[in-house]
Design a protein that fits this description.
- It contains 13 helices and 13 strands.
- By secondary structure, the protein is α+β, with helices and mostly antiparallel strands.
- The protein folds into three domains: 218 residues, Jelly Rolls (Sandwich); 47 residues; 53 residues, Orthogonal Bundle (Arc Repressor Mutant, subunit A), CATH 1.10.10.60.
- The longest helix has 23 residues.
- The chain is globular.
- The termini are close together.
- This is Transcriptional regulator, AraC family.
Length: 331
Amino acid sequence: MQVHLTAPNFCDLVQNVAQQVKADLQETELLQQFQFPVEFGQGWVQRLNIRPGVTLTLERMTLFEPLTILASQGMSTSTLDICFCLSGQVQGSHWDSHQTTTLSANRGCLGFSPEIRGCLEYASAEPVQLVNIGIDIHELASVLHHPVEMLPLALQHSLLGNSQCPYIQHFTTTTASQVALQQILNCPYNGLPRRLYLESRVIELLAHLLQSLSPSTASSSKLSPDDIERIYAASEILKHQLEHPPSLLQLAHQVGLNDYKLKLGFREVFDTTAFGYLWSVRMQEAALLLKRNRMGVTEVALSVGYSSATSFSAAFKRKFGTSPQKYRQHC
């Protein structure tokens, strides 16, 4: 099942999805919610305005077939998103940067991108439970009661608009956060008491997250803003040289870093190695080629730097859980 988003603004996401799955959307000043029609499975989505500049989106569903939400035209957003996965699996792909994020039970991610062009893929046949906190970046300092300068340098870099690449940082949900998440999903109140209760749990979750990000984590970064700029430059080189990428030493030399700083930078900025980043970009480019035209699997493999279609197919299945042929059939 595919849902093609047409709304230009990310804030209209819930309404847009509800329209396309033909669900009855209920709306008030503070709440949007809908239930999936029985032909799709069971479950619901709720989006609540917790306080000015802060939204809370709750998703609980068990679908009969995978759900893919596509934003092919680009959706503008000024929201810093913090997503927690309690169960199931969801994969997000940011097409322009070739970055992917996979969330599973007790994993989460902090992310920001001024424009979203990509897709979200929800697994089927198992319960998916997600809690997402959205914070308007213009209200960030007042909401967090926390200087933006204390956030990780790479995130500051992205929030200031100095990079076209999205910022994504993965984390493991702590035991204390898991308790707060369950309390959010099973809130016993309605009306104003419910909003106040959920706001208190959201603040608790933000406190746990900030504890892990700063001040020690942020201040311990060994990357300067100039280093981060060079890491992004290195990522651009890899994206444009998929067939014949430079070696790690060559890449470091091209962007003016030593190999140690390059390795450290990819870990800190992209939460992976330079090789892992290249592999992810190759797979995302391959997926786009399979969706957009009729190139054969061997041609796609060659275009993303694989000399063997067999090796490419094995790598593709490791990334997406299916073969290139079956992936194309379901696009």
